Amino acid sequence: MIQRAPVEVRALTLWQPWASAIAYGTKRIENRRWATDYRGWLLIHAGVTIDPAAKYAVMARPFLNRPQPVSAVLGWARLDDCHADDGMCTLWSARGQWHWHLTDVHRLPRPVPWPGARGLWTPTPDLLDQIREAAAHA
Predict the structure, then answer these.
(1) Residue 6: pLDDT band by 50, 70, 90 thresholds?
(2) Mind giving me the DSSP string for 28-75?
């Protein structure tokens, strides 16, 4: 992803603490109401919203008392699969949702401020340059 060669990259804005759970933790399934055919690098962007239901999720508790950056890219991962709910593929999986499977997760040493967007969005060349710069200082 850090290469200069043209590589398709998308971004996904998530509520906190879910963005941090991916970038800084062990969350490797993102639950969505919709499927995607996209496979490849995905920037993990923390939106401005904190999920009020997270306080009831046991898996989220380790992230609730830590700083939760908002409106920033926290890292990136490879989206390598998307499948319908098949029972309980991981502890992070939500019933009735599409499970987006993430691998090769990298966190940035410092969040890169950027406004997010809804859905799967395409980062600008400027944002990708900022991500490369931040990652180079890791």
Answers:
(1) low
(2) -EEEESS-----EEEEEEEEEEE-GGGGG-GGGHHHHTS----SEEEE
Per-residue pLDDT averaged across 107-125, rounded?
96
Query: Which pLDDT score is estimated for 86?
Result: 79
Query: CB-based contacts of 128: which residues, under 8 Å, 6+ apart?
Result: 9
Q: How far apart are CA 68 and CA 19, in angstroms?
A: 9
What average pLDDT does range 69-97 have in this prediction? 89
Strand-pair partners of 46: 14, 72
CA-based angle 59:65:22, to the nearest 5?
A: 45
